[in-house]
Amino acid sequence: MGALMQEYIEEAERDLLHTYNRYPVVLDRGDGVYLYDIEGKRYLDFVAGIAVFALGYGNRAYNDALKGQIDKLIHTSNYYYNVPAVEAARHLKAVSGMDRVFFTNSGAEAVEGAIKAARKYAFLKDGKTDHEIIAMNHSFHGRTMGALSVTGNPHYREAFEPGIGNIRFAEMNDFDSVLSCVSDKTCAILLETVQGEGGIYPAQEEFLKKLRALCDERDILLILDEIQCGMGRTGYWFAWQKYGVKPDIMMTAKALGCGVPVGAFLMTEKVGAASLKAGDHGTTYGGNPLACAAVAKVLELFEQNHIVEHVREVSGYLEEKLDGLVSKYDFIQTRRGCGLMQGLVFDRPVGPVIQKALERGLILINAGTQIIRFVPPLVIGKEQVDEMIAILDGCLAEAFE
Ligand SMILES: *Cc1c(COP(=O)(O)O)cnc(C)c1O
Prior knowledge:
The protein is an alpha/beta fold.
């Protein structure tokens, strides 16, 4: 590493609150599925800013749309209408089949909104304020107090207790464990359709279908967190579409704006008509013209470039190549995932592999200590899968053998 990069890293460590153990690289610019650091070194990016930059870096149409909107109008407040928000919502409804959209600034904020909508829905039914939400162990929903309270990892929550309360945790893909948490107070069941941070665990079709039936029977709201697994990543616009299990409320963020900070929670008309009303919820920035111009353009480009179909095509190839590594190395136990959201499960910590890959110009990230996660830009091609596998294979051989 050169002196300049070293200097920036030292200054960052002095000035930024140390809430991340960062990798020793200062990134400067991107081009397609490659990133460059400030010393000009190139990296193949299999992280995409954690499942965010789906379109690849330097997408001309996307960049131009943002520049155009910056020159026109960046912000208005939600007391006035703006065209990009109307267009973004129209398009998002069309691809999700949901009926009402609320734009937020982040994923966690979308989770907060979903929790409030569910509580209000239940409150309007019986006037009580003791409703419970069932969430899953090993889940991740974000760092704000409400989102943290439904995150099924005690390590993230412990120092910040008490959370919002009235949350019960069940086991993912274990319907009986959900049933044992259900009571008359249950207002919602909340889960990621594919758990991300918790280790790339997809919800099973049968589990989701049973949850849907249970929710229908007892008028409980099914809330699906599609913040990481949505927006084409699994080869469907939203992962639940693969199973035909439609949620009452869903959240999206990460790839929604492809880097412009924006999220959304969406609901069916049933929930929209009987939950949050004027004065119940708000945000200064959420859904502002700049953020929504990004969303509208992202959705348009996804369609124009057939991104979802492309994910289905290329992900089969990625799976095949990752399975090859599982067969080759005893210390890799299995592969899990859907589409371009994959995890390789090791019998040991993967930190050394990720470090080595970085040195060799490949950006990877973990999901838990023993899993390498693959969430590349969705425009990745087979050649880049080959390039990634070749580098990773070399790192594996060196790190552990
Ligand atoms: C990243 C993530 C969040 C939180 O989103 P932020 O934008 O970081 O607040 C919530 N849920 C899931 C599944 C995520 O992957």
